[in-house]
């Protein structure tokens, strides 16, 4: 598999043989995962035109239009879903994706919380679930509770809070988190 220019990653396989990816830590990287910032080895594919080599995140629209060609690439695939996009027409393909990126276009739009919970609980998505867009520090504990495990963070105060370990915890819960887990 070709590496995107400027990114270092390695493909790893879990006990079930499912492909995943590890990326070197990078303090200036945009992705917060596992307690540190990382480079983003995923490239965002445009809705039209050539698809970059290596792991790519495609829109739902492009996936539906070019499913067979995308599967033939033999590279890791990610799916980007915007708020309000229907999951039903991609549900049977959800296992094809190593990553699903859910967009938070503005602070007050929480539809991606519901989509995340559906992906994890109803559709059994076990890959990386990434929050993108307007990701703010006070939302991250709630994002964890519904199954997000990585975050594209560009908001400077949120980046600083994460780097300094100052993200609030949800200590009193009225319902279980994703898969019944108590989240932290």
Helix and strand topology:
Blueprint: E1 9-13, E2 19-23, E3 31-33, E4 36-38, E5 43-44, E6 56-59, H1 60-72, E7 77-81, E8 99-104, H2 111-122, E9 128-133, H3 140-145, E10 150-152, H4 156-163
Descriptive report:
The chain is built from four helices and ten strands. The chain has helices at residues 60-72, 111-122, 140-145, 156-163; strands at residues 9-13, 19-23, 31-33, 36-38, 43-44, 56-59, 77-81, 99-104, 128-133, 150-152. It has one domain: Aldolase class I (TIM Barrel, Alpha-Beta Barrel). The strands form two sheets. The protein has an eight-stranded mixed beta sheet with strand order 4-3-10-9-8-7-6-5. The chain is of the alpha/beta class.
Sheet-strand content, in percent, reads: 15-25%
CATH superfamily: Aldolase class I
C-alpha-based Rg, rounded: 16 Å
Structural class: alpha/beta
Short description:
This protein is of the alpha/beta class and 184 residues long.
Task: For the structure shown, list the relevant keywords.
alpha/beta, TIM Barrel, two-stranded antiparallel ribbon, disordered N terminus, 8-stranded mixed β-sheet
